[in-house]
Specification:
It is built from 10 helices and 13 strands. The protein is α+β, with helices and mostly antiparallel strands. It has 2 domains: 269 residues, Jelly Rolls (Sandwich), CATH 2.60.120; 93 residues, no CATH class. Helix 5 links the parallel strand 4 and strand 5. Helix 8 packs antiparallel against helix 9 and helix 8 packs across helix 10.
Length: 392
């Protein structure tokens, strides 16, 4: 194995943090079939392309759109089992060839059509933007009415490969986060020179210890990395794959610069989602493990939790902890749930209910404290009565 010890950049653009991270070699797990698009949100597949290196940089003849897009449609169908693939766009990256604009903002296309490397942990889309792309079928045209498309399952998928005919990828390759280890996210808008913006999710440095990172070292041209940007299925084990380019300090600075292409696509499935997902879902569709608020771990909070646990059972305690944890996360700017298009409309209605919950929680703690005080007074009274009877 070739694990990498490096730093990853977490946070939004106004508050970035570099976090010491070990990135595990994913090849052994992939070869043992313990890693897949479904279980981790990414996979690596053998796939040869008919294009030469310089053809990927060709912006005049449309060879990438004609030939490479066709190859990617076949690969995505095979990897996902979807029924239709719609290509959104592609980006070619080479830090040595990118102009100043493409280097400064790697999320926006450089003036010469070449981009630098994106060195911050991110997803390319948020849930609402993903649904917009699926609804428009990638071409800006509503070829189906929105109610039909809203019920159709889809994924936003990236394919990523080395395009060099001569060199492996030695440095600035992709680190990929196991989606099951993500509990909360930070929304972030990235402005582009043309006035547009990328609507991304980022990760908080406060949660970094929970995340498991992988990469595929020394990628060659006949390997295709496939990872999820968004999965509309609320029952999917992983719905997002956070990723970033990273610098491996053990690689010589004289190593050839990475040359790569990524293609973004919508994978459509004929099966429909018969019902909207529940309101509370985290990114990997596992139970959100909320951290208890400061009040919940204080004396009065522990007393309240204890009474709820004994009177209403463990599920009730978890429900209260989740409610407290979600409110705390929101106050810190985190989004501990995946706000699907179905859910987004309901969130506003639940905000007022959230404030009501907080008032009810406070009232409950006060009532419990009063009850405990009354119980102590009653106990003291009984002890005094027993003592007086004993004296008599």
């Amino acid at each position: 194995m070739t694990d990498a010890h490096t730093t990853l950049t977490y946070g939004v653009d106004t508050a970035l943090s570099r976090i010491d991270t070990v990135i595990a070699d994913a090849r052994p797990a992939r070869e043992a079939k313990k890693l897949s698009l479904d279980t981790h949100g990414f996979t690596l597949e053998p796939q040869k392309t008919g294009l030469k290196t310089q053809e990927f940089f060709d912006t005049q003849t449309g060879i990438v759109e004609r030939l490479y897009y066709t190859e990617m449609k076949r690969s995505i169908k095979k990897a996902t089992g979807c029924d239709e693939v719609l290509i959104l766009e592609h980006i070619v990256r080479d830090a040595g060839a990118a102009d100043a604009r493409g280097t400064k903002n790697p999320f926006a296309s450089g003036g010469n059509g070449i981009n630098g490397y994106a060195g911050v942990v991110h997803t390319d889309f948020r849930a609402d933007r993903a649904h917009d792309l699926a609804r428009s079928q990638g071409g800006g045209r509503k070829q189906m009415n929105s109610s039909q498309r809203d019920r159709q399952r889809f994924m936003i998928v990236n394919t990523w490969r080395n395009i060099s005919d001569e060199h492996l990828i030695y440095n600035n390759t992709l680190a990929l986060c196991d989606g099951k280890t993500v509990r909360d996210v930070l929304p972030c808008d990235v402005q582009h020179p043309n006035g547009k913006r990328s609507e991304q999710y980022r990760l908080s440095a406060a949660s970094a210890d929970e995340h498991r990172w992988f990469y595929f070292p020394y990628l060659h041209k006949d390997e295709l990395l496939i990872f999820k940007q968004y999965d509309s299925d609320p029952n999917a084990r992983v719905r997002y794959c956070f990723h970033t380019a990273f610098n491996d300090p053990t690689i010589s600075t004289d190593a050839p610069a990475r040359q790569s292409i990524e293609v973004r696509a919508v994978a459509l499935f004929n099966d429909a989602l018969t019902a909207p997902p529940p309101l509370v879902r985290n990114l990997s569709d596992e139970c959100y493990e909320a951290r208890m608020s400061e009040r919940a771990v204080s004396g009065s909070g522990r007393a309240a939790a204890g009474v709820l646990s004994s009177n209403r059972g463990v599920p009730a305690l978890r429900e209260v902890q989740c409610a407290q944890g979600k409110r705390k996360a929101k106050s810190q700017g985190l989004v501990p749930v995946d706000l699907d298009f179905h859910e987004r409309a309901m969130i506003e209605g639940h905000r007022a209910a959230g404030r009501k919950d907080e008032d009810e929680d406070a009232q409950m703690v006060q009532a419990l404290a009063a009850s405990q005080m009354a119980a102590e007074e009653d106990k003291a009274m009984k002890q005094a009565l027993a003592a007086s009877l004993h004296i008599q």
